């Protein structure tokens, strides 16, 4: 009897010790998972983007006065998206559709600080835009370098951070479902090379980062399948890198001549910014050579494309640029002086290419012509038989975007049009009243029939 009682006591003690032992073991397991670490690493560089837009009920296509019967009462609409800071000076990558038609853009950082921002460049064909946060002088921000996407594995864990449905700094996880996907949209728009993921992505996530488990930026979230669950898409990081120098063309933006082109090259273990072209009789001629690897700019280390391109956006004509390069394995210090890139005559080019006479809008002109906006270029003259007249552009239409660039004055217009050749097709964003439209216009070819000015306002 005593033996049986002792056996029961020992058995009960063991049963009790088992769960307690398990509790102690689980308590020793760290809750700081790789996902937590990735969020801590990337989170400070993710921003919420709030925009205010003017919208109307419908948008027509060009033709003979297509807007006559579709004017609706305009509404101010607020929308939200996401973005990621890719350079400490406040340059943000997001989707073009997040900031299209925006009258005002406000950026909220992870610490709740809010700043105004402006669009530097926008490209709807790749759904990418670059914003610049208006920072106080000397202020810098946490940023996340653009990573790589050529080594992605189907099934690997990914993380999305963004502002879905207005819920800021939201994290979701999933896996890579597929790579190199294509998506077709209306208007013959197609995005290629996309990453497909099942990480939940909702309205407001657009423009935010897709990360790998290391917290590295591998993509920019861009779209979902509305008729399905957990089928989302992101623009691959290599696409973002490839488009960055084109979107951030500092020679155009600053009207300077540098004279060399660079590209981000990568091998298995390293990334390098390599000189790919040196233009004859330019400041870079004789200073740089094709194949040089740029390792520093004005004393700051250059590791990736944004380091170099964003670092050059503050340069002006006459500035001396100090570079450290690797040439044949040897480290060399080089310097050059930027020269001025003459400003082209925007109005002259608009008349030559499209038959348009444009004028910068100010408040006085906006009031006089009853325009819906006080920014942009208003059409004040059209030549008969010109590409603009044939397309249906009319007096008092406002031109606000050419290709991926927003144009608010004739200097900016000239910068965009200076390399357009006769016969080129150019994407134009315009507005008639409160109705915004986008269309394509073909530049006039030499020898086109002589035109006369159809109508002109002062």
Explain the overall architecture.
By secondary structure, the chain is of the alpha+beta class. The protein has three domains: 33-248, Thrombin, subunit H; 253-340, Pdz3 Domain (Roll); 346-456, Pdz3 Domain (Roll). The protein is built from ten helices and 27 strands. The longest helix has 26 residues, at 2-27. 36% of the residues are buried. Mean pLDDT is 85; it is low at 56-73 and 449-458.
Strand and helix map with partners:
Elements: H1 2-27, H2 34-42, E1 46-55, E2 75-87, E3 91-94, H3 96-99, E4 102-108, E5 114-123, E6 128-133, E7 157-162, E8 170-185, E9 189-197, E10 209-212, E11 217-224, E12 232-236, H4 237-247, H5 250-254, E13 256-257, E14 260-266, E15 271-278, E16 293-297, E17 300-301, H6 305-312, E18 320-327, E19 330-337, E20 339-340, H7 346-354, E21 356-360, H8 363-368, E22 377-383, H9 387-391, E23 398-402, E24 405-406, H10 410-417, E25 425-432, E26 435-442, E27 453-456
Antiparallel strand pairs: 1-2, 1-4, 2-3, 3-6, 4-5, 5-6, 7-8, 7-10, 8-9, 9-12, 10-11, 11-12, 13-20, 14-15, 15-16, 16-17, 16-18, 18-19, 21-22, 22-23, 22-27, 23-24, 23-25, 25-26
Helix pairs in contact: 7-10
């Amino acid at each position: 009897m005593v033996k049986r009682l002792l056996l029961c006591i020992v058995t009960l003690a063991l049963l009790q010790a088992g769960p307690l032992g398990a509790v102690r073991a689980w308590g020793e397991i760290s809750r700081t998972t790789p996902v937590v670490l990735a969020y801590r690493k990337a989170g400070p560089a993710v921003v919420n983007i709030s925009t205010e837009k003017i919208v109307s009920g419908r948008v027509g296509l060009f033709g003979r006065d297509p807007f006559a019967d579709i004017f609706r009462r305009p509404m101010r609409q607020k929308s939200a998206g996401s973005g990621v800071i890719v350079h400490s000076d406040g340059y943000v990558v997001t989707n073009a559709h997040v900031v299209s038609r925006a009258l005002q853009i406000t950026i909220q950082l992870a610490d709740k600080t809010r700043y105004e921002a402006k669009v530097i460049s926008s490209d709807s064909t790749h759904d990418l835009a670059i914003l610049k946060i208006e920072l106080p002088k000397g202020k810098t921000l946490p940023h996340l370098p653009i990573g790589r996407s050529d080594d992605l594995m189907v099934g690997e864990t990914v993380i999305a951070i963004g502002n879905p449905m207005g819920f800021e700094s939201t994290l979701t996880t999933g896996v890579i479902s597929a790579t190199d996907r294509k998506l077709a949209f209306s208007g013959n728009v197609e995005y290629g090379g996309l990453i497909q993921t099942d990480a939940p992505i909702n309205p407001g996530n657009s423009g935010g980062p897709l990360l790998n488990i290391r917290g590295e930026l591998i993509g920019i979230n861009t779209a979902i399948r509305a008729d399905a669950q957990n089928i989302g898409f992101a623009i691959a990081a290599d696409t973002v890198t490839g488009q960055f120098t084109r979107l951030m063309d500092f020679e155009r933006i600053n009207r300077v001549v540098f004279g060399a082109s660079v590209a981000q090259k990568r091998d298995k273990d390293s990334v390098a910014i390599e000189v790919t072209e040196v233009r004859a009789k330019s400041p870079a001629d004789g200073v740089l050579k094709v194949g040089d690897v740029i390792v520093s700019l004005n004393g700051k280390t250059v590791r990736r494309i944004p380091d170099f391109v964003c670092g050059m956006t503050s340069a002006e004509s006459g500035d001396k640029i100090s570079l450290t390069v690797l040439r044949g394995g040897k480290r060399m210090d080089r310097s050059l002086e930027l020269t001025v890139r003459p400003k082209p005559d925007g109005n002259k080019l608009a008349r030559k290419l499209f038959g348009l006479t444009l004028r910068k809008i100010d408040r006085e002109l906006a009031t006089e012509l009853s325009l819906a906006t006080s920014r942009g270029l208003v059409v004040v003259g059209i030549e008969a038989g010109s590409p603009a007249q044939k397309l249906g552009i009319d007096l008092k239409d406002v031109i606000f975007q050419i290709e991926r660039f927003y144009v608010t004055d004739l200097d900016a217009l000239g910068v965009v049009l200076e390399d357009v050749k006769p016969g080129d097709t150019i994407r134009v964003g315009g507005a008639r009243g409160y109705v915004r439209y986008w269309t394509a216009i073909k530049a006039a070819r030499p020898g086109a029939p002589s035109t006369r000015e159809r109508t002109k306002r002062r």
